[in-house]
Write a structure and sequence with these properties.
homodimer; 342 residues; alpha/beta; Rossmann fold; seven-stranded parallel beta sheet; two-stranded parallel sheet; 13 helices
């Protein structure tokens, strides 16, 4: 059998989840809800846990189209008692609950710690005692690398976060690693980069620029681009990210490992903004301005990853071109923007 | 001025602390109390904060000889309100409070997180708002490197802890770094390796082997050496470690940096045990046995550091030969062992 032949196909993966119990923390959020919809399609029994913290990404509208086919449990991952009950009997746990704003993590570092660090440990403790066989995939982030010393960044890039959020996410990932090493919990972490697509938070601009810029184009507002616009980033369409979660969960070879996601080529922020106008057909309306101090201090310049490890190990590669992903994104928000504003 | 001439001398350093307000968290513990005694000698106004948690290293006897010359405040670093008051008006903060047992961190990971991770963030928040000019030196640990991929380990060695304690200590150190980078708090971290000497915890064997073995020799008990005894480690006598804290605190060039401590040459555990008998004059009484499972899983094999960075930057080098340090250690415990048993 060749190496390629041994890679899981999405067809096999579909069967992996049919009839299985799947828990998604942060399941009403951006990536969680897209994953949930896909898992419902694949025949899984999906349980979403989300706390619907007002400033976070959880949004009941995100799963409206499948509301009758899954279960929503409003709970906070900071509550260890609730979690101990909810992990019981699950075959898969997608661990996506998180505080994702770098800015907020500096203003309120304790909340970031509680959610991204303490709750992760709490969930792993619950699994260790209550459900040690559950397959866990954890949403980590390229933010743990901080300002890159080498590009593209592989998984061996030094862990050197530049904000409290990055530190706590690094801890969360390391706990997943240790619980595999020491207790054999079957954990995998995916280090996400800039994900965009339908169902992303758009209420404020503290959770990354992609969703915010898209909202501004849809609403005809001027985009302010910080720095010189030449900072390079790698963008993933959310469906490609969902596929990575499914592939990781379905493959025991991924246990005890962390994988970068990434794009086939990086894109400058200015080019990203230009593409927003090209794809949407709106008239360009943006301005390049100096960094506000608080953001400049935690800006990391260019960043893009080498994702060859997950490509070689799990056969994952992003398949949605940026123009195609943006086109689908605009179609979604043009129809639903009101559901993402308040 | 040559590079050497610009390095601080211990004479200059003595003057740095005279009349200054110094807070030591974990000040009744092993390194904290030795540091406190030295700072009292240097004329500092020393305030010790310690929670005297029964299984930890805090021991009022540790500072008995200087009890009238310093202030002891029993408080837990997990209490943010207390800390906000206590950091006020301090010129120096030596941040040594910690849960240091790797074993305990796996049994009770939440307590380890609260003390080594959450409390560090809480202390830094207190300093940021209440006393942003305080000079902070943080006790980090070589444990954050985990199982070494390269020896001797420099500060660039990957951060890859093998237990919960190592993860939380890594977070604690990274918070100190970020609070320098973003808020300009003048923080330095020292990554301690195996420290031994007077005033170390000896009540149980969950805080490292050095103190435990010394106790066993003093009490005529058989030493059980796990593995094959060939694992190499680097040992620092506590007075050398105290000197590193003083040098770091006195030198603004150390702000925003982390430094390894280390020994001039590594010593195998078997050789360390043999030295214990040679120096103490007791008859050898030890046995090499297989690792208990829980310890084997978090054992890291050989470990020793490259400490050339602190040598070049601060002029620190350990000056106490192992035989000399052990000799002083045995002299101390022969007289005081009863104060360390319960």
């Amino acid at each position: 059998m060749s190496a390629e032949a041994s890679l899981p196909s999405m067809e096999t993966i579909g069967k992996t989840f049919a009839g299985k119990n799947v828990l998604i923390t942060g399941g009403l959020g951006f990536i969680g809800s897209n994953l949930a919809i896909r898992l419902v399609d694949l025949g899984a029994h999906v349980l979403l846990v989300d706390s619907l913290i007002p400033d976070y990404g959880g949004n009941l509208f995100n799963v409206e189209q499948v509301a009758s086919k899954l279960t929503v449990n409003i709970a906070d991952v900071r509550d260890p008692n609730g979690l101990r009950y909810l992990v019981k009997g699950q075959d898969f746990l997608f661990n996506l609950a998180g505080q994702v704003s770098h800015i907020d993590s500096m203003e309120d570092p304790m909340t970031d710690l509680e959610i991204n660090c303490r709750s992760q440990l709490s969930i792993l403790e619950a699994c260790r005692y209550i459900n040690p066989d559950v397959r866990i995939v954890n949403a980590s982030t390229r933010q743990i690398y901080g300002k890159p010393v080498e590009l593209p960044a592989t998984e061996e890039h030094p862990i050197h976060p530049t904000d409290v959020n990055g530190i706590n996410k690094a801890s969360g990932e390391m706990y997943h690693q240790i619980y595999y090493d020491v207790y054999g919990l079957r954990t995998t972490s995916l280090r996400l980069t800039n994900t965009y697509g339908p169902r992303q938070l758009m209420k404020h601009n503290r959770q990354g620029f992609a969703g915010w810029f898209i909202r501004q184009v849809v609403q005809g507002e001027e985009i302010l681009l910080f720095g010189d616009g030449e900072q390079k980033r790698d963008f993933n369409y959310v469906d490609d990210v969902v596929e990575a979660f499914l592939l990781a969960a379905a493959s025991d070879v991924a246990c005890g490992q962390a994988f970068n996601l990434g794009a086939k080529s990086p894109t400058s922020l200015k080019r990203f903004v230009e593409l927003l106008y090209e794809v949407s057909g709106e008239a360009p309306n943006y301005r390049i301005v100096a960094f506000p101090e608080a953001r400049r201090k935690i800006d990391i310049g260019d960043f893009y990853t080498d994702f060859s490890k997950i490509e070689a190990t799990l056969g994952w590669t992003p398949t949605t071109p940026l123009t195609e992903g943006l086109s689908r994104t605009f179609a979604f928000y043009r129809e639903n923007i009101e559901r993402y504003l308040s």
